[in-house]
Amino acid sequence: MPSVAVKLYSVFFKFLLKHRLQNRIQTPFDDNNPYGVTSRPEESVAAANPSFTDGVATKDIHIDPFTSLSVRIFLPETSLTGTGSESQSQSRVRVRAPTKSSDLDSGSAAIDANLNPLRRNSYGAIGTAVAVTPSEQTRRSSYGGNSDAENLNLKQESGAYRGYSPSIENYLQICRKLPIILQFHGGGFVSGSNDSVANDFFCRRIAKLCDVIVIAVGYRLAPENRYPAAFEDGLKVLNWLGKQANLAECSKSLGNTRGGGGAEIRRSDVHRHIADSFGASMVEPWLAAHGDPSRCVLLGVSCGANIADYVTRKAVEAGKLLDPVKVVAQVLMYPFFIGSVPTHSEIRLANSYFYDKAMCLLAWKLFLPEEEFSLDHPAANPLIPGREPPLKHMPPTLTVVAEHDWMRDRAIAYSEELRKVNVDAPVLEYKDAVHEFATLDMLLKTPQAQACAEDIAIWVKKYISLRGHEFSY
């Protein structure tokens, strides 16, 4: 059974949550306002920190000018450094830059890890250092209009990581790419945020354990924006990720033209300047430098698991249209599923801890439009007939459930249906655990929450590791 402290906090939590949900039901909202909100005033927010103070740097980006949709990027410091034998072997590698006059500075530029061990290479090459001259240290960063190699600038004087221009990759084919996890927070579609203290802590933990870039999605909340706003926001972020990858490739192609000769380069000088300025303003350096969208995992928490499952389905339907983004797996943590025919756990645990069934019904009424409200809505029940695409096309799916969660049986049933069509869909059930036991603020530092994150990392690494390098991706 949960501890006495958890039981007491659950009583207080449910009282406060019920009061907030009822207030939102009684408060009129303009459903025609598409901008919406992604965070509530009562939410404790953690500020973004672009320096690697605890091993992970973070950055907030507002990616849609027409709505409040935003993302927070979590970049682990391992994208820049490494340890062990791999680091030692990399440190002995010398890479010679191109020698043409249009390339790095004048003449040839050598890169040797032994020359300057204190300056790390922004490409994430493990343990590799870059020899720089004093004049190079003062050049502009990749946020400027020039996307040439001179924009290589790892950190500001304050220590904040700035990234670099992706076109430099032409000269140094030693970039270490990390897989990407798209994370959707919980909160019953009406609360929570991607920059809350609890979600920030959880995403940092996942980024470090899995050694991945985590992109936490700040989707629009209900009732200001009802279904399908949150689901569409999740799909927008996946498409944005693909756009970022394609823009980075375009920037690299522009860099390749600099190696050409004479008249052709002179004729394209003006056009290149315009293209470089456009690319520098659009490309997100952290993703261009260190993100590998071909190894993308979707991770959803509670209602975020519903969003993750929807986005995964749309990714399956899109197929190669999403290239180079490829969803290789998804993780559903205590998904917010429900249905008109109650399961055994929905009857036995209807008054369970933190999120009981009555309050979750209020959340569904706030999220679904009144004319569409049904417990068998496609957003609520994953097992309704005719839901597309067929389950056999779904990627590997890990489901996390808690013993004292009334939603557990339907999540397990969904996993069983996936296994029937030969999809790798294991279930991790945690004894004496409650809904959101690994992501709720007061439970984040418990041994059970840590163990859950580690178990997720072990499973996810099977699908994000490069073939033949399962433990050194």
UniProtKB/TrEMBL annotation:
Signal peptide: none annotated. It comes from the Eukaryota. GO terms for molecular function: hydrolase activity. Residues 181-438 form the Alpha/beta hydrolase fold-3 domain. Pfam families: Abhydrolase_3 (PF07859). Coiled coil: none annotated. Transmembrane segments: none annotated. SUPFAM superfamilies: alpha/beta-Hydrolases. Residues 80-108 are annotated as: Disordered. This is Alpha/beta hydrolase fold-3 domain-containing protein.
